[in-house]
Specification:
Blueprint (H helix, E strand, L loop, with lengths): L1 E2 L9 H14 L5 E6 L6 H6 L5 E6 L2 H13 L4 H6 L2 H13 L2 E7 L12 E9 L2 H11 L2 H24 L2 E4 L2 H5 L2 H4 L4 E3 L19 E5 L5 H13 L1 H7 L4 E5 L5 H4 L7 E5 L4 H5 L4 E4 L9 H8 L4 E3 L1 H4 L10 E3 L3 H13 L1 H18 L2 H13 L25
Parallel strand pairs: 1-2, 2-3, 4-5, 5-6, 6-7, 8-9, 8-11, 9-10, 11-12, 12-13
Helix pairs in contact: 1-18, 6-7, 11-16, 14-17, 16-17
């Protein structure tokens, strides 16, 4: 298994998915994990990974050096993403493994790891793109100006061409939902494109949303552009109107590495910026409702699933809720503009019983439809080449009997 980041601890979206994949596969196979170790990673985490893996190759990388190398590669016509994740040290470790082992399968997690998959001998190769990252670069280009717009647009075009090449070369390619699959239609006709969603772990003993104070929560890495953009837009365009109608309302932004713009919000107009916390679940239990006010979003927002799993209703923009299927999602209220967003949020904050009812409906939905073992059994089938068990391109969900219209909203 090849991962661009150390898949432990599972404290952000991509690491949550890669860790659950690794743990599931390790119960059934002998797994070797090759990954890149960033400066802020805890080296002790590699020892914990060895509890699951036959061997772990965690190769340190320097952030400044890799950015320089990636930019240099763009001058030669290649894409920034490949250069950013290229590591001569990891190439050497994989070559050493390849001399000693014949692998049954290679799983490359994300496009950044795709070029490494051919460095070892294997019977099958599966690529989990998760999101089609070229679409994210395309969105960055649309909201940027000047030289940034030019660079982002060029990366979008180059990376998408590579994504299509990789999808044709691997035995199977996986994406997280049908929206991402639509962006890879050029490869869908080959039958090698598959949709495998994320799962969610249900917290034990969730507290009732009705028992909370009027606290709104957002959870995410706060140096990540889509998260930063979402929180800034929410605080500027939505939060003042909410506070005018619910004077005691508070907003808690929970997540590591808050950038300066986010730190400057702390203590202003009922906003709290927590920074890194040891247990996100402690904060989820304090929220009456969660928000996903994304304007830039790809894939599936795991934070939305986790909020629903904790029996907390979610108010989201269409971009924030689009990755979870089917739509509309029980327990989640969609708002395509600030006015409707305010109306939904005020209703949840002023009607605790409504928040509790929607939260319980959302929890039932994810418990029924988003189980890790169901999703990962299909990934395992692709890796072992079980054509009968291989997963379809589309997701079919069971109807949820408890799904109801949000009365009072």
């Amino acid at each position: 298994m090849l991962t661009p980041r150390l898949p432990y601890p599972p404290d952000r979206g991509d690491k949550i998915r890669s860790f659950h994949e690794l743990r599931y596969l390790a119960r059934r196979h002998r797994v070797f994990c090759a990954t890149l170790l960033e400066p802020h990673d805890d080296p002790q985490a590699t020892h914990l990974l060895r509890c699951y893996c036959r061997d772990v190759a965690a190769v340190p990388v320097n952030r400044a050096g890799r950015s320089t190398r990636a930019l240099a590669r763009t001058i030669t016509g290649r894409c920034y993403t490949e250069g950013y994740f290229h590591s001569p040290g990891l190439v050497r470790r994989l070559a050493a493994w390849g001399r000693k082992n014949r692998f049954d399968a290679v799983l490359a997690f994300s496009g950044g790891m795709a070029p490494y998959a051919g460095l070892v001998s294997a019977d099958r190769r599966v690529l989990d793109l998760v999101d089609v990252d070229s679409a994210k670069w395309r969105h960055y280009a649309r909201i940027s100006r000047g030289w940034r717009r030019m660079l982002y647009d060029r990366e979008a075009r180059r990376l998408h061409a590579r994504e299509l090449q990789w999808a044709r070369r691997f035995d199977a390619t996986v994406v997280i939902n049908s929206r991402e699959a639509d962006l890879m239609q050029e490869t869908a006709s080959t039958g090698s494109l598959h949709v495998i969603p994320n799962g969610v772990s249900l917290p034990t003993g969730p507290t009732s949303a009705a028992a909370t104070e009027p606290v709104v929560g957002f959870v995410g890495m706060m140096n990540y552009l889509p998260n930063v953009d979402a929180v800034l837009w929410f605080v500027r365009s939505i939060w003042p109107a909410v506070r005018r109608q619910v004077s005691g309302a508070r907003l808690m932004v929970v997540g590591r590495h808050p950038c300066r713009q986010i730190r400057n919000l702390d203590g202003v107009d009922g906003v709290t910026i927590t920074g890194s916390v040891p247990d996100v679940g402690v904060y989820l239990r304090q929220f009456r409702a969660c928000v996903a006010p994304f304007r830039i979003a790809r894939g599936l927002q795991n934070k939305v699933l986790e909020s629903l799993a904790a029996a907390r209703p979610v108010v989201a923009t269409p971009a924030g809720g689009a990755g979870i299927e089917p739509c509309p999602v029980p327990g989640m209220l969609l708002a395509d503009g600030p006015e409707l967003f305010v109306r939904h949020l005020v209703a949840l904050l002023t009607q605790p019983d409504l928040a509790d009812r929607l939260g319980k409906t959302g929890r039932a939905f994810v418990a029924e439809n988003y189980r890790w073992d169901d999703a990962l059994a299909r990934l395992d089938a692709l890796l072992v080449g079980d054509g009968v068990a291989a997963c379809p391109q589309s997701i079919t969900r069971k109807p949820l009997a408890t799904a109801a219209e949000p009365v009072g909203v």
